[in-house]
Amino acid sequence: MPKLKLLHSALKSFAKLPLPIIQKLGVVFGWAIYVCSKKTAVRIQHNLRQSLICQNEQELKQMVRKNIAESGKALLETLAIWFGNHRSVLALVKKCEGWQHVDIALNQGRGIIFLTPHLGCFEITSLYYGAHFPMTVLYRPPRQAWLLPLINSGRQRGKITLAPANSLGVKQLLQALKRGEAIGMLPDQAPFEGEGEWASFFGRPAYTMTLASKLAKKTGAQVLMAFGERLNSGRGYHIHIQPIAESGINTPALLNKEIERIIRQCPSQYLWSYDRYKVRHQEAPPDYLTD
Question: Which of 211, 185, 37, 213 is nearest to 125 (CA)?
Fold first, then answer.
């Protein structure tokens, strides 16, 4: 497809721009989305307000402004990470805190379940690990089929394998864990009907995945939370890896508490515009969560 090749070439050219410039463009892009999309603006404000992370309205306004900028950076930097030179992209990781937990799990012959919320640069974490060891990453195929080759070329780099979010993909994840390898997934992505349970997330019912808990129980894998903190002025990223006990994901409510804890470490970089509370089916949350 000539048009697809042209787009791929354009994205590779864009990725050659210095990260500070890309992120400055991202700030403009973030504000453009905020101004042009009333739905996005309302969602950011509402989600932040109900989280109670901000102590007052002044803090809330400041956090909203910061989040608009960080969300725009996240969108454009993803293109740079997907289509930039692999070695140059990895060099953007200035520090990785908590790698010892990876070493411990690997030395024990255990698989690793990386849970990476929509926080900071969530694309850099898998690429960083996949540069060292095999990793299978769960992803949801795009609605527009023509985007799939671009996503595959961007994410499937190094030792990363992609697994679609269906029964075949889950089988791939299970096989990888049984081989003592790592898998990655977004724990705060709204699952489809039958793939989750209702639990409170920042005080509001959210349909929450159960897959991570089931895989951990079945394989004895080590569960690690990971996120890529975006450093100021386009200086790169600081990856944080933190262990959580299997009991921390035994229920969707406990999983959400762990996700909340991670988000509070860097709240301005969470994707508050994401519709975490979407309902993909007709089932309503239980009354005790809505009272």
Answer: 185
Q: Output the six-digit token pair for 125.
A: 């974490």
Residue 263, amino acid: I
Q: Distance from CA of residue 73 to its chain's centroid?
A: 14
pTM over 0.85: yes
Percentages helix, strand, coil for the chain (3-state, rounded to 5) are: 50, 20, 30
Can you state the angle between helices 19-36 and 38-51, rounded to 10 degrees?
A: 100
Q: Which two tokens stand for residue 119?
A: 């926080």
Angstrom distance (rounded) from CA 143 to CA 45: 27
Residues 15, 150: Cα–Cα separation, whole Å: 14
d(CA 87, CA 118): 24
pLDDT at 227: 96
| C-alpha span between 103 and 119 (Å, rounded) | 24
Q: Per residue in 235-289, pLDDT tens?
A: 999 999 999 877 778 899 999 999 999 999 999 999 999 999 887 654 666 655 6
The DSSP result for 176-216, as a single string, is HHHTT-EEEE-TTSPPPTTSEEEEEETTEEEEEE-HHHHHH
User: Across the strands, what pairs with 163?
Assistant: 138
Longest CA span, the chain: 55
- Spatial distance between the Cα atoms of 33 and 68, rounded to a whole number of angstroms: 9
